[in-house]
Amino acid sequence: MNNSITTVAGELGQISSEAIKDLIFHATGNSNIATYAEGPTPLSWDLIAEGGWDEIGIVEDGEGATLRDLVDVARTWGRGCIQLPLVATILAKRHSVVARGIDGPVTLALPSATLPAGTSYIPFGQDPTTPILAGLGSAAESVTSGRPGAVEDTLAITLRGIEANVESTLSPVAAREIAVVLAAEAVGAAERMLDDAVAFAKERKQFGKPIGSFQAVKHHLANALIAVEMGETATIWASTQEEEAFRGSAFAVNQAIKAAELALQVHGGLGFTWEMGLHFYLRHMLAVREIIQGLREQHA
User: Fold this and answer.
1) Could you tell me if 48 and 83 are in contact, meaning their C-beta atoms sit under 8 angstroms apart?
2) How crowded is residue 242: how many other Cβ atoms within 10 Å of its Cβ?
3) DSSP class of residue 265?
4) Alpha-carbon gap, residue 114 to 106, rounded angstroms
């Protein structure tokens, strides 16, 4: 067993992450997620396609992004939780020749721990023009536009998901990589929530002092930071040790949720309001946790 960990992403991972970070910033202005989560996506898919960012996962002749690189890309994307299937498309085109022939985004029908056999969770399946890949890294590669029995997901609003009687047949490698990258996306969302909580603690005053000066708030922020860093470390470990992929991914998303809950508490009563928008990130994480558990149950 290889016990070494590459703690830093490769050049392609770093360049891609920075470029995607810029795309998100120019699209949202670093604004509150509540300003766009329920409306049209602030970022055009054309901008993603023009940069070729949906194809960065493709490996040809030994050249291309590693899973470690994709962890950084997914973390960056998770900070915005923009309503586009970038992560699903990167993985689909990484593992499927059929997906590479599709001009535009593609999604996957994934198992979820809360759904019965034969029913899958389809991120971004609410858009009927987004094809669903029936097989990933398997002999069942094809696409479908059908969504039999579709029920709209109202929990993870940023995922624009549906539950439907469609299944994507996944190879073991594809299943592991999906789990790792989704976990990294959740960690990125937790990082953004922590940043927002720190900024809030500096600005919000009580008894004439910033609440960040109070020991209890400091402890919450410190514990949230530890959870985020543990989640990040777990995704790196999971990306380099395939036998730890599912365990590391499950641990990482649980740490992300822990950090998110602490960030909510720092915001006090405001943190639970719809307008503050923190719940959008948490809802996203909760859905991801169920998908990772579903993948783990099927492929571990």
Assistant:
1) no
2) 16
3) H
4) 23
Query: pLDDT tens digits for 124-159?
Result: 999 999 999 998 887 778 888 889 999 999 999 999
Q: What is the 3-state secondary structure (H, E, C) of the chain?
A: CCCCCCCCCCHHHHHHHHHHHHHHHHHHCCCCHHHCCCCCCCCCHHHHHHHCHHHCCCCECCECCCHHHHHHHHHHHHCCCCCCCHHHHHHHHHHCHHHHCCCCCCEECECCCCCCCCCEEECCCCCCCCCEECEECCCCCCEECCCCCCEECCCCHHHCCEEECCCCEECHHHHHHHHHHHHHHHHHHHHHHHHHHHHHHHHCEECCEEHHHCHHHHHHHHHHHHHHHHHHHHHHHHHHCHHHHHHHHHHHHHHHHHHHHHHHHHCHHHHHCCCCCHHHHHHHHHHHHHHHHHHHHHHC
Task: Supply φ then ψ for residue 283, to 5 degrees.
Answer: -60, -40
Q: Which two tokens stand for residue 123?
A: 């991120």
Beta strand 132-133 pairing with 107-108? parallel
Amino acid at 271: G
Query: What tens digit of pLDDT does each residue of 95-129 get?
Result: 999 999 999 999 999 999 999 989 999 999 999 99
